[in-house]
Amino acid sequence: MAATLRTTAVAAVLALLADQTTAAATAASKCPTRFAWENAQLTNATIANSDPSLFGFGSDVYSSKASRSPNLAAECKAMPGDASWPSQKTWTLFNSTLGGALIQTVPLAAPCYSNWPQYDAAACAYVLEHWNDPHMHVEDPTSAMFPLYQGRTCLPTEDPTASNCTLGGYAAYSVAATEVSHIQLALNFARNANLRLVVRNTGHDFGDKSVGAGALSVWTHKLKGIEFVADYNCGGRSGPAFKLGSGVVTEEVYAAAEKNGVTVVGGECRTVGIAGGYIAGGGHSPMAALVGMAADQVLSMEVVLPNGRFVTANEDSNPDLYWALRGGGGSTYGVVSSVTIRAYPKMPTTTMTYTYTTGPNVTADTFFAALGVYMSYFDTFTAAGAYGYFLVAGTGPGEYLFNMMPMWGANMTKPQFTSLVTPFLNDLASLGIAITPVITEYPTLYQAYNGTFPAEVVGGADNHAASRLFPKENFEPAKLADTLAAVRHAIEGGGLLIGYNIRAAPNAAVNQANSVNPAWRKATGFFILAATWPADATDAQIQQASETLTNDWMARWREVSPGAGSYMSEGDINEPDFQQSFYGEHYARLLALKKKYDPTGLFYAPTAVGSEDWYVTDQLEWIPTQNGRLCRKT
Ligand SMILES: Cc1cc2nc3c(=O)[nH]c(=O)nc-3n(C[C@H](O)[C@H](O)[C@H](O)COP(=O)(O)OP(=O)(O)OC[C@H]3O[C@@H](n4cnc5c(N)ncnc54)[C@H](O)[C@@H]3O)c2cc1C
Ligand SMILES: *[C@@H]1O[C@H](CO)[C@@H](O)[C@H](O)[C@H]1NC(C)=O
Ligand SMILES: *[C@@H]1O[C@H](CO)[C@@H](O)[C@H](O)[C@H]1NC(C)=O
Ligand SMILES: *[C@@H]1O[C@H](CO)[C@@H](O)[C@H](O)[C@H]1NC(C)=O
Ligand SMILES: *[C@@H]1O[C@H](CO)[C@@H](O)[C@H](O)[C@H]1NC(C)=O
Ligand SMILES: *[C@@H]1O[C@H](CO)[C@@H](O)[C@H](O)[C@H]1NC(C)=O
Ligand SMILES: *[C@@H]1O[C@H](CO)[C@@H](O)[C@H](O)[C@H]1NC(C)=O
């Protein structure tokens, strides 16, 4: 007893000393400053020397539709060929005001088509060869990695007679922004000239939220700054942090973290843009079960608002915007130019990969029973900070494959990880499933990632995905069988499951009071389900497959998880009641903030907050594209 008291007293003194150390450190506050290219802002003089009616800022407040200029009240956004479309002279003026940053769109696959001056067999061969590699698309100003919703108007082809490549849903022009003034000019011009505006970073979005016919696109790819702040100490938060330009992609920030001996939160795809759609949509990662969502890690952001003004959003400045930009979706409240995110100390990471299939000793029933056994461990694994990324697919009639690609133990040594998974591996063995797991410990996240995660494949127009965030209850005994039956129904019907055993861990070190879909906070399973069809499928076949995905397979998933949601960044463009599914109970507040910050409706993307006020003309049911005219519902 006495010993305990003494230890407690010593601990109290130590804590007091620690507090004093913290207080002393707080005095030397260190907030990251803006990048040099963020200080290059649009000035009144630049506007005055050019054309204020085209490039001037928007009002801070628009009280009603009647007070808008005639252009802003227009029913549809302008399209090339319209009388209101800017003249060649105006585009030239815009380009010179931008210092030459304007790009007229040439589709990535134009070299394969004789109706484009870029027609070139060697260039076409390159595009064909790399079409499924996201790296090529990321370097292009306008390409979309899921061409279905662009309208499939310029897919690469080996047909030497092909001559029908058109822009389809691709933007008309892009601004290759290298400084904040470029973003401001683009937003002011699009708003004043009633142009459709899109924001494109990498083009990863499943629903093509970064393309739009006849649009002016802000291309953020070249906003590349990466600054490591070892001793961030700002607004009452301290620790290591990174300030990242919005063009920075996952593999770049992982490499920077490796170099600086820390760990950061990023996605599993090497080329997803961290500060763009990823953080805006919530952002899941192999670190989620340990430290929470990517949006939770944001300490501060810099953003150009729809009226053209450049502001900071964090706990102290524009806190409502800070809330909305962390989970409320991309292309809605402004263009983010940079984010500052928290980093964590370097940590050991252990990964495990394995596969098994149906076969002579493993019936389909046993195969799915094994999937159920894995699901019954979802809560145990995520509570320990682990994450699983796996695939389940049909390989022939009644034949199935399971691929763990990988399971990931952040901050776990191999012995720690092995003791976590041993009971599960024993359960698999007792079902008669013989696997040979490869368990490897790496000293850092980057090495684990580089050593384990497969490369991503994009560019196909032969599939489409939907997703569900299953709450923890779905994997508890009372609901497990029903959940498994709903999942099995989809896979037996031909669906491809890309599953995550994941949770958004609570984390006191960061601000989690943000607009991330509340369904993420309850989930331990995030399942993406894809429908596929032959490459030469007709529109009718694609419509049929999409309808089956949404109204049969996913309907069962929704029924077994009432009130849960879906992840907007890897979601179904046809998602019913998308407001509830993608945003949950945050939708009303997000919509009010949309009206506050974007009263003229400058920003639009399919399924984005406020998108229900708009429609795109000339649509086929189940295959919505961005290649019609964007109009306001009246
Ligand atoms: C192969 C693959 C793997 C993926 N892996 C993961 C993963 O591990 N975890 C995860 O959470 N998600 C993942 N995703 C989904 C990914 O998060 C989303 O597609 C995300 O929207 C990509 O953002 P982006 O900025 O790179 O792409 P884009 O398609 O260029 O942009 C997506 C949306 O954000 C908007 N936007 C982009 N930049 C800005 C900006 N600076 N300011 C305002 N709006 C902006 C765009 O207008 C668009 O609406 C993956 C997707 C693919 C295709
Ligand atoms: C720019 O002009 C606006 C009004 O047109 C004015 O409110 C603002 O102060 C000016 N800014 C500078 C830096 O002069
Ligand atoms: C914009 O100007 C630059 C530099 O003069 C030029 O290279 C580019 O082609 C121009 N863009 C358009 C769309 O004309
Ligand atoms: C272009 O032409 C080819 C061959 O005639 C045809 O298969 C394809 O569907 C056409 N594409 C579009 C977008 O019209
Ligand atoms: C199937 O089980 C039999 C009997 O236990 C065994 O001899 C055989 O090796 C097993 N086959 C496979 C593919 O595991
Ligand atoms: C990683 O593990 C160490 C040692 O157990 C612990 O102190 C640290 O808080 C953990 N890091 C995270 C981010 O959980
Ligand atoms: C990444 O993995 C490859 C092999 O897959 C290896 O050659 C390379 O050295 C690794 N890079 C790092 C930084 O670990």
Write up this protein:
With 634 residues, the chain is of the alpha+beta class. The chain has 3 domains: 2-29 and 223-345, 2-Layer Sandwich (Uridine Diphospho-n-acetylenolpyruvylglucosamine Reductase, domain 3); 44-58 and 66-219, no CATH class; 349-586, 3-Layer(aba) Sandwich (Vanillyl-alcohol Oxidase, Chain A, domain 3), CATH 3.40.462.20. It is 33% helix and 20% strand. It is built from 21 helices and 20 strands. The strands form 5 sheets. Strands 15-12-14-13-17-18-16 form a 7-stranded antiparallel sheet. The protein has a 5-stranded antiparallel sheet with strand order 5-6-10-8-9. α13 packs across α17 and α17 (477-492) runs antiparallel to α19. Bound molecules: flavin-adenine dinucleotide and 2-acetamido-2-deoxy-beta-D-glucopyranose (6 copies).
In the CATH hierarchy, the architecture of the largest domain is 3-Layer(aba) Sandwich
How many discrete domains? 3
Euclidean distance between termini CA atoms: 76 Å
CATH topology of the largest domain: Vanillyl-alcohol Oxidase, Chain A, domain 3
Strand line-up in the sheet with most strands: 15-12-14-13-17-18-16
Percent strand equals: 15-25%
* Spatial extent as radius of gyration: 25 Å
